[in-house]
TrEMBL record:
The chain crosses the membrane at residues 68-84, 114-138, 170-193, 205-226. It comes from Huso huso (Beluga). This is NTPase KAP family P-loop domain-containing protein 1-like. The lineage of its organism: Eukaryota, Metazoa, Chordata, Craniata, Vertebrata. The keyword Transmembrane helix applies. The keyword Aminoacyl-tRNA synthetase does not apply. InterPro entries: KAP_P-loop, NTPase_KAP_P-loop, SAM_KIDINS220.
């Protein structure tokens, strides 16, 4: 029964058909953020192209069959005595052979020149596929220079041009001289080498004829043998590595020239095999894990593809299996682009001739991949049997211990009896806990990939297999830690939702947790004023985020890299506002078990937000700069109440409060208004305005200090040039 093709099967088929049609050289960009999906597509593309090659070979069989002794000898004779003549007519042949070579850039990331590792991989793969001996024979006998190219171009032969010495074909000279050489060697072996009279100054005629006959062929044979031995001992990849080890050689133009020669040798070898086998040969170079390398090495590989593998009539099809977002950022941050227009997309488009962006997986495919990963990472099938046998053994051990304790009651101390009988009880209890934990893990993972009414994770499941593995592993570890700390285990759906939240939006979740922590600290500070030392734990996390989202936008430039880790902001809103209504109480419970949330993110937000100094100011009598988020939430009454802490003159303070209410100076007006306008509205003295400005705005008045402070805390509260409307709209766009 035929199985239904998946969406990746369709994508791989479409791209493989396109690759069989494109003209070499060509560079294909296979774009996807999921490495595992890229690997699967490459395997399917390779399978489809091989099937197409086999189909064409059946219809248009090649001239020679591989594996026979005569075929091997025929190749050697062609290499030694002929030059191949490759023309445009060979492109019209219908049959193709595809040679697939995988280059994992991560394996060569430790080298000085990553692109040289690319050429080394090509050389090693050619030696593996065709044999080191055959490659060495070709390098020795097929040294094609400009004079040889001219001879081949001017020749009237269609495919094979005989090598000539003194206008005579090399194969004819070999046929003529070979019997003479063999005969002379036989005579020398049988009769012995005749010599003349020792008193004569010359040599005999026979000696002269022998030297003249053996001299030229012997010299040619010795030279050929020497070069062949050299190429066998020192392969192409060895030569490149030797050049890289030379001091300062890798930075010279000569090194690139030597590497270019090696690529030319491989190209000429492919052309030779195309003429000999009478079919087209394409080398499909699959470049993977390039996005894991440093920017300079990424640029080096891209330039090598553009320069070395994209020459005229080069039979290479390069597949760049990358995450374009990572590559573009690396290209733009590379030192090679200093002083230039840094546009990584344009640079990539100049190299890639066939871009193929893998569409996002359908939700059914995501669930299928997630289930497969769960099955592969699940416990062994025999675990259930092991647990059952352990439970039986624990019960048997318990009964045996109890029986022995009764029999030896007169000998054993009474204090020893509980110790002996407690071990099976503890083990029995552990078995029960293990079963509960295992069931909760299975249920939590099932909920994520469920297709029924609980399938609210459809919009939040990413296609990246690494992301899925992190969720699976985090669910296991978190539940195990909860059980180990003897906490009440929450519902499976809540566990799964919290893990997904921390994995999908680490920056925004860290921001919410930091806001909760700051609010608790502020409640402890204001206990004497408010009479409350805690916050409302029934408040939803989305409400906490809404109260501080403008403040988050104000510092978005400082946390740009952190915000880029988060997923879609609209999905974040739907997650907390509609699907999973987590409260502060739930967040405080899960916080201790959130193993997949990097605490350094929260620490960075804590430093930028300025909350680290809150505890230090609890006993301080002096007013300190308020947090931007706290000021934003203030109304006119809150501003007046907070101003009392500045201890202004009572008469002046009453006037200021009245003016605050008359001009509607709430928190937003203070932050987004112009400092001079606020000062004119309040009509404060210079000293009081300085204290007021530092406390509410966190800055010195412009009239006193025109130069703005460049500290991270102060620069985060300078929003006078931004409108509130722009802030609210901007928050919905991803940084």
């Amino acid at each position: 029964m035929a199985t239904k093709d998946t969406e990746d099967d369709i994508y791989a088929y479409g791209l493989s058909v396109a690759l069989t049609k494109v003209a070499a050289p060509s560079t294909v960009g296979l774009y996807s953020s999921c490495p595992r999906r890229i690997q699967g597509l490459l395997r399917k593309i390779e399978t489809n192209m091989k099937k197409e090659s086999e189909r064409r070979e059946k219809k248009y069989p090649p001239a020679q069959k591989k594996g026979s002794l005569w075929n091997f000898l025929s190749i050697l004779l062609r290499m030694i005595f002929y030059w191949p003549k490759w023309s445009d007519k060979h492109k019209e042949r219908k049959n193709f052979q595809y040679i697939f070579i995988r280059f994992n850039a991560w394996h060569f990331t430790g080298t000085d020149k990553l692109w040289a590792g690319l050429v080394i991989t090509l050389c090693e793969s050619f030696q593996t596929i065709f044999g080191s001996f055959l490659i060495s024979i070709f390098r020795t006998s097929q040294q094609i220079d400009e004079s040889v190219k001219k001879t081949i171009k001017e020749s009237c032969e269609k495919e094979w041009i005989a090598k000539k010495i003194c206008c005579l074909p090399l194969w004819l000279l070999t046929l003529v001289t070979a019997p003479l050489v063999i005969g002379l060697i036989a005579v020398v072996i049988i009769v012995g080498f005749p010599v003349g009279d020792s008193s004569d100054d010359g040599i005999t005629a026979f000696e002269s004829m022998a030297i003249a006959t053996l001299g030229l062929p012997a010299a040619g044979a010795v030279r050929f043998t020497f070069l062949l031995s050299k190429n066998l001992m020192f392969s192409q990849d060895f030569n490149i590595q030797r050049l890289m080890d030379k001091p300062r050689m890798s930075t010279q133009l000569g090194f690139m020239n030597e590497v270019r020669k090696e690529v030319e040798v491989l190209t000429n070898f492919i052309r030779f095999m195309e003429v000999y086998e009478r079919r087209n040969i394409r080398v499909v170079l699959e470049i993977t894990n390039l996005d894991r390398c440093t920017p300079e090495k990424i640029v080096g590989v891209l330039e090598a593809i553009n320069i070395l593998l994209s020459g005229e009539n080069v039979p290479f099809i390069s597949i760049l299996a990358i995450d374009p977002r990572v590559i573009v950022k690396s290209v733009e941050s590379s030192k090679s682009f200093e002083g230039m227009d840094k546009n990584g997309y344009l640079f990539l488009n100049r190299i890639v001739t066939l871009p193929f962006t893998v569409p996002e997986m359908e939700i059914s495919s995501k669930r299928s991949v997630f289930r497969k990963l769960v099955e592969r990472q699940s416990e062994f099938p025999e675990d259930d049997e092991i647990e059952e046998s352990q439970e039986i053994s624990y019960k048997a051990e318990r009964s045996q211990v109890l029986e022995e304790s009764f029999m030896e009651s007169g000998i054993l101390y009474e204090s020893q009896i509980p110790l002996i009988s407690s071990t099976p009880d503890r083990r029995e209890h552990n078995v029960t806990i293990q079963k509960t934990v295992k069931d909760l893990i299975k249920e939590s993972l099932r909920v994520i990939s469920d297709e029924g009414t609980e399938g609210t994770f459809n919009d939040y499941l990413m296609e990246n297999s690494i992301y899925m593995r992190r969720i699976i592993n985090s669910v296991r570890v978190s539940i195990i830690i909860m059980a180990a700390r003897k906490r009440e285990l929450p519902p499976a759906k809540e566990v799964a939702a919290w893990i997904v939240l921390a994995n999908q939006w680490p920056c925004r979740l860290s921001w919410i947790l930091q806001c909760i922590e700051d609010d608790e600290q502020r409640a402890a500070i204001d206990k004497n004023v408010t009479g409350e030392d805690s916050i409302d734990e029934t408040k939803c996390l989305w409400d906490v985020f809404c109260e501080s989202r403008i403040e988050l936008h104000l510092i978005k430039d400082q946390i740009k890299n952190l915000l880029e880790m988060d997923g879609d902001p609209e999905l974040f809103e739907m997650f907390l506002k509609k699907d999973f209504l987590f409260t502060i109480k739930k967040a405080k419970f899960f916080k201790a078990f959130t193993v997949n949330l990097d605490q350094s993110i929260k620490k960075e937000l804590e430093i930028i937000r300025g909350s680290k100094s809150l505890k230090d100011t609890i006993k301080s009598e002096k007013a300190t700069p308020l947090k931007t988020g706290l000021v934003l939430q203030m109304n006119e009454d809150d501003v007046c109440k907070e101003m009392k802490k500045l201890k202004f003159n009572e008469t002046n303070a009453g006037k200021y409060m009245q003016r605050i209410k008359e001009n509607n100076l709430n928190g937003r007006a203070l932050l987004f208004g112009h400092n001079n306008e606020i000062k004119n509205a309040l009509q404060m003295s210079m000293g009081e305005w300085t204290d007021f400005s530092i406390h509410f705005l966190g800055i010195k008045p412009q009239a006193v200090c025109p130069a703005r402070d460049s500290s991270p805390y102060l620069t985060s509260v300078q929003p006078s040039a931004i409108s509130v409307e722009n802030l609210v709209v901007g928050e919905s766009t991803r940084a």
